[in-house]
Amino acid sequence: MTFTVRTYGGDEKPQMGFFTDTSLCIGCKACEVACKQWNEIPQSMQGFTGKSYDNTVDLGANSWRHVAFVEQRKELAPDGGLVEQAVLEQLASATGLQTYQEGDGMRWLMASDVCKHCTHAACLDVCPTGALFRTEFDTVVVQEDICNGCGYCVSACPFGVLDQREDDGRVWKCTLCYDRLKDDQQPACSQACPTNSIQFGELGDLRERAEQRLEQLSDAGAEKAQLYLADDDDGVGGAHAFFLLLDEPEVYGLPPDPIDATRDVRMTWGAAAVAAAGLGAVLAAAVFGGRR
Amino acid sequence: MSSATGTAAPAGSSYYGQPVLKQPVWTPEIPAYFFAGGLAGASAGLAYLSGEGALARRAWATALAGAAISPPLLISDLGVPSRFLHMLRMVKVTSPMSVGTWILSAFSLATAGAAAHALTGRAPRTAAVCRPAAALLGLPLSTYTGALIAQTAVPVWHEARRHLPIVFAAGAAVSAGAAATVLTPPEHAAAARRLTAIGAVAEMASMLVMEQRLGKLGEPYSAGTAGRLKRAASALVGGGALLVAGAGRRSRAAAVAGGATVLAGAAAARFSIFRAGFQSASDPAYTVAPQRARIAAGEARGASRRSPR
Fold this sequence. Notes:
Chain A is of the alpha+beta class.
């Protein structure tokens, strides 16, 4: 399946995106490094956070890829975890999913997060300057020569992706390597990913591939495996960067039902209009109310 | 307990307690503008409807002052203030900030024309156009700011999208009434006192309704700094309005003291709502819980999908 961007006329391109299959992530952070290097992003926090191997913490102006590490010890079942161990071995042999859980009850989830490049992108809709725009690849990019740092997109993003760079005042985020796409190259992160956890391609192809992988993992016993942002009918109209997760989204710090804040724009403007009319009535009542 | 995928995600689980959302990057200039813009907008309406005379002149002066201070407040909040003109590159109805920029620009021009005539008597024909224009533009100027913060992912703002414009309209009304009460001799300020009283009741009632509708999600409005500001705002607006209504007609001193108290309260209310947004965005539970509730209630299907089997 190929989706194309309709507004670019002769320059139209297929919709491109990322499928991040977190079941293949080994937490190497090559994506973070490659992204920083290619996009010349200033250094971010280098200290120890106490949050497993995560010393990036979140996405932001200076972190456009972020590898999350969920490290949790869980109670073993009354049988000493024998049944679970059997299922895990089945998962490992059938799908190559080995990093997910060790036999001693330690649970490992790793996931490389990124800007979702939403189909209905609130950041883009609220941007008053037009600095944020939709590219011919249907991705969402900030033009750094236009952005005046008003900060509206920062609060509009349901994923907390965008942020202001402190020394510079402008807002920065993943461009899905727009410059590389224009030269028919793949983004730096997906090229650097050694396990193919980050897959770049045409959105339709990626969705088919994700569907197959979900089925494979579910069949092998990963019963909480789920595709996140892979459909057109969720609150952001689907995303160009979507994920295969092994637990609920909030475990990875992702919202379970993100919505485009501008979806209710008519109602919000309606409320503002009603309130404005009410204010007019109150003013009139105050001025003319005593003259009868 | 599930087998292969570890423990079920406990209710309210999160990634090391990290917020899902970013904190707003807006500075205190923004709530200061909410106050100044509302004060200016409603003052223009009050001035226009009052016609000529002592009250109208002072209300036009207030509107002019509010219109004059608003752009500097907004520009100094920008990450790159020198690029403030980029705001006028386009008109975008999905962005209340874009629409609001145009409303404020037009309002400021109209108010300048109207106030110039009210204060100097010059340019009556320009004023004839400017006066109704300023009064009309002042209404949306007072309420679009509610729409602006409602159009974000911040739970206490977005979920209050029906209510925030009304709260802001009430705040504008009480501010304009109080400012005119302070500035105008009591014998000419009857309308200002009435506006203060109606506005105070409307502000407190609309805040109450908003918090009731939000339920548990509205907690940030009552917690921490936002809560302290809100309680101060209620006390100041309520007490000041009582003083204005009770003694403002006879005593200029009471009118000035009462009006100033109300103004302080109205400003505190804007800062309270602003702070509540930060507090709401900083806790992942406020982001995740209502989304889970939507899914559980069948109002949304959520962004995840498991294998159909």
